[in-house]
Design a protein that fits this description.
The protein contains one helix and 19 strands. It is mainly β. Strands 10, 12, 14, 15, 16 and 18 form a six-stranded antiparallel sheet that branches. A five-stranded mixed sheet has the order 11-1-19-13-17, with no helix packed on it. The chain has a four-stranded mixed sheet with strand order 6-3-2-9, with no helix packed on it. Strand 2 and strand 3 form a beta hairpin. The longest helix has 9 residues. The protein is globular, with a radius of gyration of 19 Å.
């Protein structure tokens, strides 16, 4: 058995200027929102930052100063507001691999906390909390943006527009023998509902580069799929205002050598974003 946790929100919701990256490496989401769109508090998780290719450029290399911050999308163009905190300066790092190393030297993932938004409500460009690069230590940088490769889950209602109606998705394999583990599959539908007409990208991800580890010895893991697509590629759906669209969540098991008898379990995340 493993349980796939759902995190209500509309993921990476920069509707105007931002689209989901072709290769995501930084995963974050909002688990809870309070208040109203103009005055909101978000409980967030920055789940992981996967290794970067050696030649991916740092967008703020050569600036007079560049801070990596934990922040939220404050304006419709994707620029940040007041930083939760500033992590490290990286203007001397030519590549994102160096930026990641600098952040990893002072932070441990997952990073959890709360962020506050006080300002204009965002509709087509929904709020999210993630890792930003910006020229000011405390935030409020007009040139600040989410780091490239960010998959940044947007806020659920009452502040945001969309949510997953189910609680935890329990994909239960029951009793299964070792010879039947490889490629064993289980599936279940979830339902996405929005209070605005929205085009939504649904993402499913595990903690190990997208996979869900099921044994600490790495002998068993699960790959995730949404409507038949790899989980981190995701499924794009069009949700009408106050409507609901189903999405199939599937897990497929894979083995790595012999698997000892006994219980197996793990968890992943479902994130909503905008394509």
């Amino acid at each position: 058995m493993f349980i796939l946790k759902r995190f209500p929100a509309l993921f990476i919701t920069i509707g105007l200027l931002f689209s989901a990256p072709a290769m995501a490496s930084i995963f974050s989401y909002i688990t809870h929102s309070e208040g109203e769109p103009a005055h909101a508090t978000y409980t967030y998780v920055i789940q992981r930052w996967d290794p970067e290719p050696d030649n991916t450029p740092n967008p703020c290399y050569g600036w007079s100063q560049c801070w990596i911050t934990i922040n939220h999308k404050h304006d419709a163009n994707g620029s940040p507001g007041s930083a939760v905190r500033s992590i490290v300066r990286v203007e001397k790092e030519r590549y994102l691999s160096g930026v990641r190393a600098a952040v990893m030297s002072v932070e441990s993932f997952p990073i959890q906390g709360t962020a506050r938004h006080d300002g204009d409500p965002l509709t087509s460009n929904q709020e999210c909390v993630g890792l930003f690069y910006e020229s000011k230590e405390g935030g409020w940088s007009p040139n600040g943006r989410l780091l490239p490769g960010s998959l940044c889950g947007i806020a659920p209602p009452p502040v945001g527009a969309c949510k997953i109606t189910e609680g935890a998705v329990n994909l239960n394999y029951g009793d299964i023998d070792e010879v039947s583990l490889e490629n064993a599959a289980r599936a279940q539908n979830i339902n996405i509902t929005c209070n605005l007409a929205m085009k939504v990208l649904v993402i499913a991800s595990g903690s190990d580069s997208g996979r869900v580890p099921l044994r600490t010895d790495n002998s068993l893991y699960a790959d995730l799929f949404l409507d038949g697509n790899p989980g981190e590629k995701g499924s794009v759906i069009n949700v009408p205002k106050n409507g609901t669209i189903p999405v199939e969540v599937k897990s497929i098991l894979h083995t790595n050598g012999r698997v000892a008898p006994g219980h197996f379990s793990g968890s992943g995340s479902i994130i909503l974003t905008m394509p």
